[in-house]
Amino acid sequence: MDYLKRILNARVYDVAKETPLQLARKLSERIGNRVWLKREETQPIYSFKLRGAYNKMARLSAEELARGVICASAGNHAQGVALSAATLGCEATIVMPVTTPKLKRDAVAALGGKVVLHGDSYSDAYAKARELGDAHGYVFVHPFDDPDVIAGQGTIGMEILRQRQGEIHAVFVAVGGGGLISGVAAYIKAVRPEIKIIGVQMADSDAMLRSVRAGQRVELADVGLFSDGTAVKLVGEETFRLTRELVDDFVVVDTDAVCAAIKDAFEDTRRVLEPAGAMGIAGLKSYAAQHGLQDKTLVAVTCGANLNFDRLRFIAERAETGEEREALFAVSIPEERGSFKRLCQAVGDRNVTEFSYRISEERDAHVLVGVTTASRADAESIRKSLEAERFSAIDLVDDDLAKEHLRYMVGGRSELAANERLYRFQFPERPGALMRFLTSMHPNWNITLFHYRNQGADYGRILVGIQVPDGDAHAFQAFIDGLGYPYVDETNNRAYRLFLG
């Protein structure tokens, strides 16, 4: 009841706004439940953190504000403190891990905060901020382990219940240090205790879950940095107490699942969330699948959208795997004429996302194949089709080495690739175009290198190494001209000669 009063009297709306609770129509249809998104990424700093920071700082005395404030943050709390300081007329020093995205560092500086970079995680920055605060007399504004900060975040729970007065089965909240879920749970459990509160943690940053299971706070030796907003080694004392008492369950998600959730959010809102911001959606999907939920009302807090643009490529590539929309195989085929064509026929008219091959030995060829799938069962069907052609197929969908590195590597030099010609082609990205290219090849022309990746663009790009007998030069030229695809002869390319030729 103390937190209920704190939340009802929280001072957040001088700077924060009441954010929409929006129905995610596409996601709802896909998973068979009514999914609502609490759009905290629409706040002025694109994160919920403004609520708690301002509620804490607005209650400081004039003398405390005159001394200045300091905080440690991976970025979003930092922006909340910086904007609150500018609004209240005080100075703010922000200690951030060196791994903090540049977008967040620049945003803090633009709001007038003094940025100090230190350490690789929030915990490292926290120790430095405490040291500087003691040395200079700054007031420390904790990002999560403070009753006023927790109460500020709790206004999100208050808004959810005001905006959705009907049935709610569960609310899904990303967990780092625990401030957000503590505040949301404190309000909802006081008013509507039947609603489940589900915490969502990254598999490589699950300090809160481990602490709850152990019955005491557990400090992680290291944390993953993909979701920098929840990369916390040690949760707070107060947040641990509240979470242990009020949170009903936890879901652990991985990088691929979060990337898929970012895509889900974009398709419904046209907003690109940061990893921490999409964790609630990822957890909601996982929980609904695990428990067979149907026709339930589920709420996910989308808590942030401060994402560096250069991370979009990685997220887009991993989203398909996270949604089980892509299968990735290492396929071994006999190094003989016709095998490549049989492989293409086994794949069929499915949408190919990746096709990489480099001649390497006389007996067997190894091809990396990515294919769009409707489900994990579809991937198994493809594997059986490949094995029916007597090809060895290894499923790599759970192999991080393959997904992060091998799929971008096309081998090296090969003694078997003598007299190789290298061509780069561009063709309309439509079903069947890649297979048309492959099946048009003359059987006497040996493919020594092949690389293709679906980039999601209107045009696909292929790199092909081919051995063409001297007597077939005119026929080969007629073939590539007849395809009607733009091409470039890269046989004398310096990079090719250095690494592959």
Automatic annotation (TrEMBL):
GO MF terms, alphabetically ordered: L-serine ammonia-lyase activity; threonine deaminase activity
Keywords in alphabetical order: Amino-acid biosynthesis, Branched-chain amino acid biosynthesis, Isoleucine biosynthesis, Lyase, Pyridoxal phosphate, Repeat
SUPFAM superfamilies: ACT-like, Tryptophan synthase beta subunit-like PLP-dependent enzymes
Gene Ontology terms describing biological process: isoleucine biosynthetic process; L-serine catabolic process; L-threonine catabolic process
Keyword Glycosyltransferase: no
Catalyses which reaction(s): L-threonine = 2-oxobutanoate + NH4(+)
One Pfam family it belongs to: PALP
Annotated EC: 4.3.1.19
UniProt superkingdom: Bacteria
Xref: Gene3D superfamilies: 3.40.50.1100, Biosynthetic Threonine Deaminase, Domain 3 (3.40.1020.10)
Associated pathway: Amino-acid biosynthesis; L-isoleucine biosynthesis; 2-oxobutanoate from L-threonine: step 1/1
Cofactor dependence: pyridoxal 5'-phosphate
Record has Repeat as a keyword: yes
Enzyme class: lyase
Domain ACT-like residues, every copy: 327-398, 421-492
InterPro entries found in the cross-reference section: ACT-like_dom_sf, Ser/Thr_Dehydratase, TD_ACT-like, TD_ACT-like_sf, Thr_deHydtase_biosynth, TrpB-like_PALP, TrpB-like_PALP_sf
Family: Belongs to the serine/threonine dehydratase family.
Oligomeric and partner information: Homotetramer.
Role of this protein: Catalyzes the anaerobic formation of alpha-ketobutyrate and ammonia from threonine in a two-step reaction. The first step involved a dehydration of threonine and a production of enamine intermediates (aminocrotonate), which tautomerizes to its imine form (iminobutyrate). Both intermediates are unstable and short-lived. The second step is the nonenzymatic hydrolysis of the enamine/imine intermediates to form 2-ketobutyrate and free ammonia. In the low water environment of the cell, the second step is accelerated by RidA.
NCBIfam families to which the protein is assigned, alphabetical: ilvA_2Cterm (TIGR01124), PRK09224.1 (NF006674), PRK12483.1 (NF009130)
PANTHER family: THREONINE DEHYDRATASE, MITOCHONDRIAL, THREONINE DEHYDRATASE, MITOCHONDRIAL-RELATED
Name of this protein: L-threonine dehydratase
Species in which this protein is naturally found: Lacipirellula parvula
Lineage: Bacteria, Pseudomonadati, Planctomycetota, Planctomycetia, Pirellulales
